[in-house]
Amino acid sequence: MLSNINKHSNLFLIVVLWLVVTIFNLNKSFHIDDTAYLEVAKWIEKNPTKPLSGELEWSDKLEFDLNDENQIKKPSLFHPPLFLYIISIWGKLFSYSEISLHFLMSIFTLWILLRFNNILEILNKPNKKFIIIALSFCPVFILNHNIMLDIPLLAFILEFFYWTINSKCSDKKGFILSSIFFSLSSLTKYSAIPLIGKIFIKILYKKNVKNILWLLIPFIFFSLWMIFNLYDFGAIHFFILPSSPIWFSKYIQNLIGYFAYFGSISIFLSILLYKEYLESKNFIFKFLLLTSIYISILVPLIIVLNYFLNFNENLLNLILFYIFIINGCIVFLLLIKQVIKRFLIKFKFYELILVYWIVSLSFFSIFFAPFLASRHIILILPAILLILDFQFKEFNKKKLKYFTLLFFSLIPSFTYVMSDISFSNIYKKEAKKISIEFGDKNEIWFNGTWGWKFYAEENNMKYLKEISEIKSNDYLVVPKKVSGSFVPKNIDLSLIKEIKIKNKFFYENFSTIWFYSYFPFNNKKGKFYNSDEKEIFKIYKKN
After folding, report:
1. Are 355 and 129 in contact (CB under 8 A)?
2. In what order do the strands lie in the sheet with 462-463?
3. What angle do CA 215, 220, 223 make, to 5 degrees?
4. Nearest-5° angle of CA 139, CA 141, CA 143?
């Protein structure tokens, strides 16, 4: 009876959390890389058998000449298009509007929360509600509900993990479904490929050589995908992706950035670290845990004080950068401590898979991802929550302290989310204003990508592909802070207007662009705090 009550209360909580995340994102403006995925999805709708043959108008696009039959053609996207097929079908049925596509994303959100709850039940984790809240209110979990691949990918990865560890089903069913969902994960984003090690670990654990035949399932999936690539554009997609040169300074920066990212989004973990702090007898770990708890209070305090005070931008960025690195390092040290502790006792099967999950995806992000983004970290967050195995033994005695820490952790999440919504809305609002002011005159051209590109085209502006396209008395709009924006050379232009978008609300000062693309710490673009302008639009006229 009691277990049924707990089960229903967990489901009620999941629905509430799902509604909160959905409401935050439902009418959010298209943002960052949304434009690229939307363009490819619309191309797929009209050309379903040629998903990567469309020419993507993007600042870092991989162009090819459609009329040149002799060259090796390059795809329009770095990732497989599985989720983009889903977008194209959904868009065809329900429209490509913000509400429609964000509701599609919310279906994957619900899937993630329900399956994560199932995993907690299988592993018999205590206090499931707090662990689900910790996942749901992580700021990057809410922020990454743009039209990107990481939330659907996380749903596939959790499903893959669920069937890998589910001892309640037969080995046959477990291997079949885990192999299928591994394949779907990898065809959503190639960064999931290292997770094939989970299947190898299960094969070794079962000690049955015949189980290796289950690897034929992902082999068949990938073979069909490669054959399809040859039909699509005459080459195998995975093998012609650009490779990064070996660059050790970049790896070091990525490693530092990885800890900074994780430290910035894991303030909420103090709720879970508190119990570890109470029980720890090691002075060093006790000190580190207390430091992390104080950081989780300091960051919200900075955000609140920002409402009343005018902080020095350079100093605050430096402070935030270092406390985020410290926080990230402390959490990972605790993780290593827990892994060693389990290893000395006896590693459980699922714990070995969790460790592999964290290490493999972290390694891939640091050494192979073209750039580091916080969405790479959201993919390992469930594994971190599961392996730390929080018990909350002191919860009933320390309820006030736990809820206080929960309250503090929600302040950064709310701040980052509201800041990002505000940031994304800039381009929707300004594209409409500029179109109204100049649209009844000559042509309006623009460059730059991200959400700006979508809304500029929606308001009848034209994407500038060739310098020769712009005629005398035409206008050119160039935003400052989006990818691919620049003032073309060799064009006689006069600056006629400059629109500066200033921060109006306290939460807008806390930058979220670093959530999407990590800039090295010695790069001034990599700001956590920006006390002045959010964007500058320059409008030129061709002489």
Report:
1. no
2. 462-463, 444-446, 475-479, 533-542, 493-502
3. 125
4. 65
Residue 461 · residue 445 · CB < 8 Å: yes
C-alpha–C-alpha distance, residues 311 and 303, integer Å: 10
- Local structure of 500: helix, strand or coil: strand
Task: Please provide the average confidence, as pLDDT, over all residues in the chain.
Answer: 85
User: What is the DSSP secondary-structure string of 232-267?
Assistant: HHSS-GGGGS--PPP-HHHHHHHHHHHHHHHHHH-G
Q: Is 308 helix (H, G, I), strand (E, B) or coil?
A: coil
Q: With a cut of 50, list the residues of the chain below it in pLDDT.
A: 60-73
Are the beta carbons of 150 and 129 closer than 8 angstroms?
no
CB 190 within 8 A of CB 240: no
Coil vs helix vs strand at 501: strand
Match 């191309």 to its residue by tokens.
Answer: 43
Q: Are 388 and 272 in contact (CB under 8 A)?
A: yes
Q: Are 105 and 149 in contact (CB under 8 A)?
A: no
Would you tell me the crossing angle of helices 197-206 and 349-367 to the nearest 10 degrees? 160
Whether residue 29 contacts residue 425, with contact meaning beta carbons closer than 8 Å, is answered with: yes
Q: How far is CA 471 from CA 468, 475, 538, in A?
A: 7, 9, 18
Cβ neighbours of residue 355 closer than 8 Å, sequence gap 6 or more: 339, 387
Q: What is the pLDDT of residue 64?
A: 32
Number of other residues whose CB lies within 10 A of the CB of residue 309 = 9
Residue 508, Cβ density class (10 Å: 0-12 exposed, 13-18 middle, ≥19 buried)? buried
- How far is C-alpha 247 from the chain's CA centre? 24
212/202 Cα distance (integer angstroms)? 10
Q: What is the pLDDT of residue 5?
A: 61
Q: For residue 143, what pLDDT is reported?
A: 86
Under a CB-based contact definition with an 8 Å cutoff, are residues 261 and 329 in contact? Answer: no
Please write the tens of the pLDDT for every residue from 375-391: 888 999 999 989 876 55
Phi, psi of 15 (to 5 degrees): -65, -40
